Amino acid sequence: MRGRAVSLTLAGLLFTGVPALAAPPGAVLLADTNRNGSVDGADLAGKGRWTPQRGAIFLPNLDDDAKRCKVTEDDLKDYSIEVDLRLAACNDAQDDVVNGPLDLADLAPLRTLPRKASQDGTVSLGAGEGRYARLWIERGGSWTSLGEGGTLTAKELTDGAKLALEGRDVIRDKSAWNGVVTVTLKVSGSADSVQLRVAPLIMQSDLKAPRTVVTSKPPVETERGYPEFLGDLKKAMTAAKLPESALTRVTDYDEWFQDIFEPTTASMPGPGGQPQVLHVLLRSANLRTSDFSSGGGGSSLRAAGRLVFTTLRGPGVGVVQQFTGERDETVDDSLNSTGNYESLPPYRGHPLGRPLYGSVASRKPDPSFTRLIDSQYADPVVIDTSWLIVGHSDETTHVIPARTARGWTLMIADPRLAIEVMRKATKDGHGDAVLFDGTSEKKKPTIDEALADPVFLEQNETAAQHIDTQIAVLTRETGLTERELVRVPVLFEEVHLAQIDELVASGRIPPQTKAGLQKRTVPERVFGAHTAGIPNGISLGGGVFGAPDPHGPRVGGVDLFKRETERALTGIPLKVSWVEDWDFAHKWLGEVHCITNALREPTKADWWRA
């Protein structure tokens, strides 16, 4: 989808079929107002005021087409935020050259209408807009930055100046900047303007196939559970017809790759009307306390997040970093992990889809990060994940395809269904089947033993009631009915203080979460998946879902939870490829989704046609 050139030519006939000499008097500045990928006379009407239906679009040029941004070994050893700020500030919009044809394709074309001029003129951005965009002009076959504005010579005005607009940032707070810039041309007492708006960041949809799957490569690849996980992930990718080259493994001790960045795309009309697409990775706003930072003082952003700079940033892939250190005690850093940020695909009334994340007043993510998410002109859906110790939206829900007019539905973790499956097994004479068979778990109760435990039953009913609350929000916001939901069996358990200490020590949750429990900003009772959370898998395209092996009770060699999941998917265009993640992820309250990430085809590349 990513274009290799942009239409920057200007012939003697700018207006289709209308000679330049017949043009309206005075200054005339044009952009791709009709969004067909070129600049011509059809762009004249309505160019002065951007609307959803008409108006030119520009990209936030935050990628690194020439691969000039380097991360040194010294950078990686220094965990200070100053280094993170410097790394994030390196991109194509921050240098003073156009880095070849790929970079040029990321600029939005502007043109002045050729007219006889005896005096120089000027072109400029609106007041204060230079921090968000800058202007370029082609002179002598090369491109020169004009910054916020500059002089156009009389000859350039006579010939018709070739200009371009480069975006320098995304919308971070729409109350401070709504993404619109105004470019004004002034010539001999006349003036003309055109408005453009920066492309919004559109979150990826799990309905789209991945181009790249990213996962960790532990320094010791024989780490318990990793070979099994990797082997099954590769099998699932093969089932989805993804080439082996689509898998990128990055060496890091922090395996929670879903939690360190959230992929989005930005796009504008390119040559021939084809979308010019830029992938923009949102680095997680995980701000860790002093024990994670160099020198033993201050705070540091999550170190593993630097892989967006070392491995992923490059041609067509940019990075945005957004966080604030001004947080009150209700901000829980675990909710800043980007496993908490998912998306709902487009549907009626929401053509760009909708972000989905977990937050409540007493336990919420970084407010500056959610403000950025909320500013992309796609209303978020917010659910309560505070009852989960990790607190992520991906723990209980997953978007899957459906043969309906909407085209999708939600897979939902259902503890009541898990209990129902177990009770039926007992009724059928299989109460001696054990849970967690084939795992390293020390306690492997039989079905009968589990069902005889009132604490076990109460904890799963409590988790089910919390999920009911999530479902009520999701069905109300999307129009999905209860009957459309695909429920799969997942058992939950209450997480106690000793387990929380282990999770903090492992790096799965930050110390702030434990502190929140002590201050009661985190609920007194918190839960996690007991059997592997089946919805917490990875969509691989080709109708394949890489789901964590639940290790439910087995009867006659058949895992009852797997069988029930496959039954629930009857009529759904999706097949499960089971992935072993028990020792590598599940024991630390994570699953396949948590330890992978993906760069996908855009949710809506031509979003302006939505």
TrEMBL record:
Residue ranges of the TM segments: none
Keywords, ordered alphabetically: Signal
Cellular component, GO, one term: cytoplasm
InterPro entries for this protein: PAD, PAD_C, PAD_central_sf
Protein name: Protein-arginine deiminase
Keyword Zinc: no
Top-level taxon of origin: Bacteria
One Pfam match: PAD
Ranges for domain Protein-arginine deiminase C-terminal: 191-608
Species annotation: Amycolatopsis xylanica
Molecular function per GO: calcium ion binding; protein-arginine deiminase activity
Residues in the signal sequence: 1-22
Presence of the UniProt keyword Signal in the record: yes
